[in-house]
Each structure stands twice: as structure tokens, then as C-alpha cells.
Amino acid sequence: MSQIPTPSSSVASTSSSASAAEPPAVPPVDFVLAGRAVSTGAHIAGLIAAAQLDTVGTPRKLPADLFPGVDPAVVQEIWDRALVVGVRAGQLMNAPRFNRDKLARLQGQLTEAGFLAMGGMAGQSRVAAERAPEWHPADGEDGREHP
Predict the structure, then answer these.
(1) Which residues contact 2 (CB under 8 A, 6 or more apart)?
(2) With contact defined as beta carbons under 8 Å apart, do 128 and 96 qualify?
(3) Which residue, 127, 80, 131, 86, is CA-closest to 107?
(4) In degrees, to the nearest 5, what angle opens at C-alpha 47 toward C-alphas 135 and 80?
(5) 96 near 20, Cβ under 8 Å?
(6) What is the pLDDT of residues 78-122, one digit of tens each?
(7) If we measure between CA atoms, which residue out of 39, 60, 53, 65 comes closest to residue 105?
(8) 3-state secondary structure of 18
(9) Which positions ≥6 away from 134 have C-beta within 8 Å?
(10) Over the stretch 16-64, which tens digit does the pLDDT of each residue have?
(11) CA-to-CA distance for 47 and 55, rounded, in angstroms?
(12) Could you give the 3-state DSSP secondary structure of residue 34?
């Protein structure tokens, strides 16, 4: 069985003078990218949880929304439902600063209904939306101007 290198292992170190107990001064690129992927995945999962509630209408419909005991005749229904949730998640993701209140409301509904994991994920996406700037310096640029 091989050992997976970690930032503090001698295998992951890029310098021969670094001690096996000391992490590198700058994390290797793949650790940074892996962290970004996890963060992005959690953000998208929260948006999907919020969109699922937003499109089903009420938290009490969420368990039935999972389509337990699916048979082939229901596959189209599942596809149609996933499409609606995916489109709504995309809308929430594409305009985070305009969806802050909606994400907060949906998170609250999920949490109050006892869907704590889904509410927590929606909350992580809400926090990211709250951090979205009201205005960015590049908002006024059209990309065709050259200095």
C-alpha cells in the first residue's frame, strides 16, 4: 500500500533542504486547485438545494421529490424535474448579488423545516452571494478599448 503525499510529507516537498515535518512555504498548485474545486462544488450544491426548494414550492414536498422506487416510466419525469432545478440553480448562480434575499429566505425555509444539511449548503452559497460586489471596476468596460 503506498502512502498519498501530503503537503508536509517529504515526497511532496520540492526542496531537498525542507524538513519532512515542515509544510512547503507555498502550497503545491494541485492542493490549491483541489481546494477551489471543493469550494465551487459546495457552492453549486447549495444553489441546487435552494433551487430544489424554490421549484418544488414547499419543504414538505422534498422527500417525494427524490422519486423513490423509480421505474422506467418515470425517467422522463425525473429528467424534467432535474432540468427545472438545474436551470434555477444557474439563474441563482449567474446573478448572486440579485439573489441574496431569495437565498436567505430559501435557506431559512430549509432550516426551519428540519432540512439542516440542505439549509447549510444553501447558506454557504448565500454567504458567497453576500460577498459579491455591488459594482466591479470592469463593469463599465466593453473589452474593445485599448490603452
Answers:
(1) none
(2) yes
(3) 127
(4) 125
(5) no
(6) 778 888 999 999 888 888 778 888 999 999 999 999 999 999 999
(7) 53
(8) coil
(9) 97
(10) 444 556 555 556 676 677 778 888 999 999 999 999 999 989 988 777 7
(11) 12
(12) helix
What ranges in the chain are assigned the alpha helix state H?
29-56, 75-94, 100-112, 116-131
C-alpha cell at 32: 490549491
CA distance 132 to 135: 9
Q: Would you give the distance in Å from CA 145 to the centre of its chain?
A: 34
C-alpha cell read off for 107: 435557506
| Nearest CA-CA partner of 61 in 52, 69, 70 | 52
CB 53 within 8 A of CB 110: yes
Residues belonging to the chain: 147
